[in-house]
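Follow-up to my post from last week.
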Amino acid sequence: MMDLAAIVLMLLGLYALLTTKHIIKMIIGLNVFEVGLNLFIITIGYNEDGIAPILTGSNSIKDFVDPLPQAIVLTAIVIGFGITAVALMVARKIHEQHGTYDINEIGGK
Amino acid sequence: MAYSVLLIALPLLLAFLSMFIKKGKENLLYLGMLINVMMLFVLDQGTYLIGGFAKPYGISLVVDQYSYVGVLLVNLLFFFSIISNYKQIGKHSTVLLTLLAGVNGMVMTGDLFNLFVFLEITTISAYILTTSTKNYLGTFNYIIVSAVGSSLYLLGVIMLYAAFGTLDFRAMTEAIAGSHMQVMLPMLLIFAGLSVEAKLLPFNGWVKGIFTKANGLVGSMMAAIIASASLFVMGRILNVLITDSLMMDIAMIVGVVTLILGELSAYNSKRIKDILLYSSIGQSGLVTILMISGLVFPALIVIINNGIAKLIMFTIGDEATRENEDHKGFFANHQLMGIAFTIASFSLIGLPLFMGFYAKINSLIGLFEMNLLLPAILMLVTIVEGAYLIRLNIQLWHPGDEGETTSVYEGRKQKPALSMVLATLVLAAALVAVGFMPEVLGDRLTDKSLLNEKHIEYMTDLKGGM
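User reply:
Got it. Predicted complex:
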């Protein structure tokens, strides 16, 4: 169920990227896409009634949720943050240069 | 000593330190670049396990024959690119150091997720670097396409992880052997994601916005260093992961279309940087075709030849058009740069006596053994390539139109940096030297049977055991 929600989020993000011509909205679309992807990665490691993967002696490895996707998501979030920051910086520069955020008005693609 | 990890860690450390320095940041860049080049001489082949986790659980850096060539190439090209374009470094020392760490990591890593991380480190540095061209819309376009591309790559990787439980290249190759439909979608996503950086159609819409206004530094970084690193990565993925025959056919078609359209667009272009950018796209297509065909050795020579030639041509091309878009007759006053540029373009075409000849002839020999269509395409494309590159050279050497004997080109204020002339001449001399002594490329050149060797064994042929 959650993985389905994640895929819907990703498609929503892609739809936003493909249809909007507003630079800030495109960045938001990219973020929605990335959040969907992160959620999808988390669902990969999830297992029903799983516990945190810390060996205490009384539990077996089978009870654990997979910690690797969580580590991956942590990295992916940081990278996504970096990309968003750079994209916003470039968006500001575009606004300084052209006075608008609308790609149609700028005359580009 | 684990020099492989130092090749990545040292530039990252210096990049961090450079943030605290106000003046003389570029000294740290020079230091990092020099130490990296020196470490290349003592770099051993083998696998380094980061954190000591056993394979396939941990992340490993793999220096096999394949990635050794890659590390050697990207670090040396970086060195020459910085020397040639040191005037344009400006505030970008920190970014250039992270970029160096990123490309080294991309080439050496043996882990699929780690590759994503290094890919992002490289591309984020590239985004910032390309803002120096002041074409912010082009950069924004690049950010969006590249971010979606790498997300697709990550999606493909995580799907493979969910199905097979590993992220290690080698373990993944063994795990996916024999699966077909199950790995089709992840493979497609991974290929699409990497195609953005490798400039393959239809994911290369961003290229024009970046390269048309790129200065010598950005142009050589993007067209020579990042392009080479991406092609090395693409080659490894195509050989190690993409084993499904349908997926290989798709990649082959993408490669052929990219090669043909890239070279034809270059033929139709007038401006020097447009010609170079479309030629880069065409070369990426050629490398993809060769890698898919299992012709790893010819593909490596194509990457090396293209990297060196593009560095020379972008650096000199920027110098020729900086003050005046009209580049006609520029070399009449700058013969040394002209010689380097002409050697690079002849090598790119694949004329005998230059390194490119061995790239083309090895590709042709290998492709002829498979079918007749691909070599025919490659030969036709080479003719087109020859036509536009020789036309460009004539324009650059001759002032005025055909038949005219106008005075020598005038009106330039800045003198080109001596280091740029020397660095491009050294690289051009390397292209000629390899043309005369192809044996430095390895024995595989003359040994025809090795051209057909199983590429996976070639790529994992190392002392440490991948």
